[in-house]
Amino acid sequence: MKNLIWYDTNFVHYIFTRLRNHSKIFDEYLEENISYGLMTSSTSIPPIDMTGKKTFGFNVTVVKNNIPPYEEVDVGHDVISLLEKKAKEVCSLGRYVDILWSGGLDSTTTLLILKDYAENDQLRVIMSEGSIDEYPWLYETLVKDMNHVVNRNMDFRSEIKKEHITVNANMADMMYHGSLGNHSSGSGPDQGEFSSCPIEYKNNTHWKLNHIWQQRNFQHVSGYLGDEVIVEDDYFPMGVSLFDDRDVIQWYINKHIRNELPLLRQPWDTLSDEVITRYREIWEMMPSEGRLCQTKEDVKNIPIADSYLEMKMELRDYIAHRTGDKEYAYNKPKVASYSHGQKNMYDDSYPTVAVCDDGSVIKRDQLDSINPFDFVTP
After folding, report:
1. 55-218-157-168 Cα dihedral, nearest 10 degrees
2. 181 burial type by CB count under 10 A (0-12 exposed, 13-18 middle, 19+ buried)
3. N vs C: which end of the chain shows fewer Cβ within 10 Å?
């Protein structure tokens, strides 16, 4: 038996196909994935349950379960100091550190903080030409004089090195304008009317965080070209974020419990009745613990931002203070920042489809040679 720490949809679909000749096993596996698993986030990101309570048919090892319980614990009021603490820990491990810099708010914050704690020549910036377009001023005044590599093939993950710590900023979006995992909010004056807004059916903060954390951080191995990665007990150097620190996550949980972080308003009035009905079904299946909205009345207590420019103010304030560039800090719109540095990771172009807990990597061209029963829970 092999235990997985990460897998993509191509691996899932391959297992499905190979198990079709074993109807009982396949039916049980399919039911588990559809009814409880794939619906937790996106069907393009298979879930791994960080609680260890669900394995979705696969033999799974959870690496570095850093998710605190959904309860308020005092970790201080300044999230930047918590991010700095994590950066200091990362830089103290004696490895080269790579930062995936897109030019957006999250990765720019991460870059500026890491630079404060990295030793000389320890930090390298992995970026694309689009990163320059997204924040040209910072490139000209800082990044171009740092150790950096510009990937011009929309495949910046191919620059990842096994022996380096690779820091991403993926987790920030989960913490902010999506209540730990989605971007939903009310669109009408009622901001939560069941008939027009499915916010109640999408917001389950702690539960979604348990499922999405591992996939979001580990997806960077998809473009990795080597045949093994480093897995050290509870640490995976190729998938690290300052935002995945336990105290940082706790800070955001505290803010959500106190309704102190706004949700971003979205045009839900364009959704079909069929989609809204599906949200209701999903919501009913979610456990109530950690659910942001227990009832539609709860929605009225959540602050709503009408624009992305009202979001991530802690990061905007930090960037403005560090760089003096208030124009960027307070006027940076929402964009799919990584899109200019990566191919579509679900278009069958990336080489890696799964990683095992012994560090071995399963490549796309190896799928036909693997035994699916090596990975399926009996």
Report:
1. 160
2. buried
3. C
Element (H, E) at 126: strand 123-128
Q: Is the pLDDT of residue 264 over 50?
A: yes
Residue 299 predicted with pLDDT over 80: no
Please state, as a whole number, how many other Cβ atoms lie within 10 Å of the Cβ of residue 16. 15
The DSSP-derived string for 296-359 is HHHHTTS-EESSGGGS-HHHHHHHHHHH--HHHHHH-----GGGGGB--TTSS--SEEEEETTS
Residues 198/25, Cβ–Cβ less than 8 Å: no
Q: In the prediction, which pLDDT does 191 show?
A: 37
Comparing CA positions, the residue from 104, 92, 167 lying closest to residue 135 is 104
pLDDT at residue 126 is higher than 80: yes
Q: Are 83 and 175 in contact (CB under 8 A)?
A: no
- The arithmetic mean of pLDDT across residues 196-211, rounded, is 52
Q: How many helices (H) and strands (E) does the chain have?
A: 14, 10
Q: How far is CA 113 from CA 78, 238, 242, 309, in A?
A: 14, 19, 9, 22
Least confident of 13-17, 215-219, 222-226, 262-266: 262-266
Those residues with Cβ within 8 angstroms of residue 95's Cβ, 6 or more apart along the chain or in another chain: 163, 164, 165, 237
- Domains of the chain by residue range: 66-350
Span 137-165, average pLDDT: 95
